Amino acid sequence: MRLFFTKENIHEGSLILVNRNYPLQKESGNVLCAPLETQQEIRMEETAGKNLYRLFVNLADSSQIAGVSGYRTKHEQVQIFEDSLKENGKEFTETYVAFPDCSEHQTGLAIDLVKKSEEIDFICPDFPREGVCQQFREQAAEYGFIERYPKEKEAVTGIGEEPWHFRYVGTPHAQIMREKGMVLEEYTEWLKQFSREKPFRWKENRIYYVRGQEETGISIPDNTEYHISGNNVDGFVVTLTGETNEKRAGKCKTGKCKN
């Protein structure tokens, strides 16, 4: 099977890199859902939201955690940025608040979380590295989420440490990034060394990069699960799961294999 993509598709998908160097090219057209039953105003892209819901269901006591902010429109991001400039000043705002069109919240793939308390700081919510908050953090990668702005990566991300901000990138990418200690900027660049002929292999997955053209054709082996995402920079990340028919046939020496 061969699939075709345009340059516009580079800016779509769960692995898009959004920062000051690579802003959003258009408003999110993603289907949105409300993953937190008691906070219907918090919305996320549908797949990200469903996985956040699954993660909450499996926590020991998710009732101690609340959502602060999910999907935002550009207008909302402009308002938050301008309000923070007035209240907190330029240095604080540029450290903790993304410029409009440079915010992951506009994709619907990010969420800010807080440990429930009487008073909540909506710019820097408290999400400690202990208790149920730490349990969430430790399980996040299994559901496709990464802590997007960790300590000591500020020079790479351009954003100060934000223990409360989580971004959906999907599996197995979240697990790989956790294992290798990479943030999304680093992961996006690192993947460019892998091609269809020489993919990165992780468990049952094969992952590789394809540079975007005016029209980009990507071949997918028959009967193989796949996911293709733009990176919002210059190409696509292809993730193949499972073995191809050819590899299965090569392993079948007895004639007793089942298809």
β-strand number: 12
Terminal residue distance: 19 Å
Structural class: alpha+beta
List the quaternary state of the chains: single chain
Instruction: Going across the biggest sheet, name each strand in turn.
Output: 4-5-7-6
Sequence stretches where pLDDT stays below 50 over 5 or more residues: 244-259
Topology as a string of helices (H) and strands (E): EEEHEHHEHEHEHHEEEEEH
β-strand amount:
15-25%
> Nearest-angstrom radius of gyration?
20 Å
Gross morphology: globular
Count helical runs: 8
* Percent range of helical residues: 25-40%
Q: Major beta sheet, specifics?
A: 4 strands, antiparallel
Mean pLDDT: 91
Short description:
This protein has 259 residues and is an alpha+beta fold.
What does this structure look like?
The protein has 259 residues and is an alpha+beta fold. The chain is built from eight helices and twelve strands. It has helices at 46-57, 74-88, 90-96, 131-139, 154-157, 173-180, 184-190, 245-251; strands spanning 2-6, 32-33, 44-45, 65-69, 110-115, 145-149, 162-168, 200-202, 205-211, 215-219, 225-230, 235-241. The strands form four sheets. A four-stranded antiparallel beta sheet has the order 4-5-7-6. Strands 8-9-12-11 form a four-stranded antiparallel beta sheet, with no helix packed on it. A two-stranded antiparallel ribbon has the order 1-10. The protein is globular. Residues 244-259 have low confidence and may be disordered.
Q: What are the defining features of this structure?
A:
259 residues, alpha+beta, 4-stranded antiparallel sheet
